[in-house]
Amino acid sequence: MTASTTVRRLTFADPGEAAGFAALLQRLVRWEKNASVRVKSGGGRDEGRGESGVVGVFAKPARFEVLAIRTARLLRPIELDSTVAAGELLESVDEGAEAMTVPSPVTGPSWAGVLPPRSGWQPLGELPTDSVRTVAAATVKEFRERAERLTQRDRGTLDALAEEIWSRPLGRTELPLRAVHAAHALGFLHGQQPTTLLSAGSWLRLRTRYGSVAVRTSVGPSLSVTPTAPGGHGS
C-alpha cells in the first residue's frame, strides 16, 4: 500500500458530503479514540458525467468485525492512498467548503491492507430498508435482553452469545447480522431507498446511499481497491 507523505485537500463535488463523512468519523472516534481509516482517491467514471475524481474512506469500526465504506465524487481527481488517524481527519473536515484535508499518514492496522475488490460485484437483490432496520433493532433488543439475564457467573459466555446472535444470516441471505448491526449503528440505514446486497468472490456487501458494510464470508485472496464513482455513497 502506498501512502501520501503530503497533506492533501479534497473538495467534494456534491453538497452534504462533508457532513456525511464527519458523521461517520465522529462515530468511529467515539467508539475508538485512536481509530484509523484508509483514504484512497483517484480518477473514476461517474455514469452520465464521464471521468471525475472519487474518494473512498475505509474503516473497521470498533466492536464490529466488518469494514465500513463511504465514497464520494470530487471536483477534480487527486491520486492519494494513505492510512490516517480518524480523529485528525475529522478535525480537517470543512462542511462550509465541502472539503477535507488528509493529514499525515500513520502506521496502519493490518485490516487496512486487505480491502474489498474494486470490480466484479454482482447484485443479489434489493431489500426494503425499513425491514432491514426492523431486523437490526429487534436483534439488538434480543442481545441486550439475553445479556441482562446472564448472572455474574455466566458473564464469561457473553462473547459466545454475541457470536451466536451476530453470526446468524439475514433472512435467506448469507449476510451475517453483524453487518446489519454495523450498518444500523453507523447511520447507513436512513431513508426509504432500497438497500442492495452484492457479492464478489468471498465478499458480501450491504450498500445504501449513505455507505456500505462489507464482510468476508471465507478466506480468499488479498484484494485491494481503488474507489469507483459511487452509485450512492456505498459504492
Account of the 3D structure:
The structure is a single chain. This protein is α+β, with helices and mostly antiparallel strands. The protein is 26% helix and 29% strand. The protein has helices spanning 17-31, 86-92, 129-148, 158-166, 177-185, and strands spanning 8-11, 36-46, 50-59, 67-74, 80-85, 99-102, 122-127, 195-200, 203-208, 211-216.
For the sheet with most strands, the description reads: 8 strands, antiparallel
Alpha-beta content class: alpha+beta
How much beta, percentage-wise?
Answer: 25-35%
Q: Radius of gyration over alpha carbons?
A: 18 Å
Order of strands across the widest beta sheet?
A: 5-2-3-4-10-9-8-7
Helix count, DSSP H or I runs of 4 or more residues: 5
Spatial shape? globular
Q: What would the average pLDDT be, to the nearest integer?
A: 87
SSE order, one letter for each helix or strand: EHEEEEHEEHHHEEE
Low-confidence residue ranges? 1-5, 46-50, 219-231
Number of strands: 10
Distance between the termini: 21 Å
Fraction of helical residues:
25-40%
Please sum up the structure shown:
With 235 residues, the protein is α+β, with helices and mostly antiparallel strands. It contains five helices and ten strands, in the order E-H-E-E-E-E-H-E-E-H-H-H-E-E-E.
